[in-house]
Design a protein that fits this description.
single chain; 62 residues
Length: 62
């Protein structure tokens, strides 16, 4: 099988398009849904004592 410079160029152009698409996806400004934002706010207000420790979780669920 012989690879030509044209084939390498074509493959590189295809890869460039895919990378550009990935970059576009990563740069898209996503926002959390309102209900998720509200849950985060509520969890930040809770006292740390209200949370279950990792040791307690291991004891209960093994």
């Amino acid at each position: 099988m012989q690879i030509t410079l044209e084939q390498v160029h074509k493959d590189l152009e295809g890869l460039k398009k895919k990378v550009d698409h990935i970059v576009d996806l990563l740069e898209e400004p996503y926002e959390l849904a309102d209900d998720v934002q509200e849950e985060i706010k509520q969890s930040k207000k809770r006292s740390k004592e209200a949370f279950v420790s990792q040791e307690e979780m291991r004891a209960e669920f093994g």
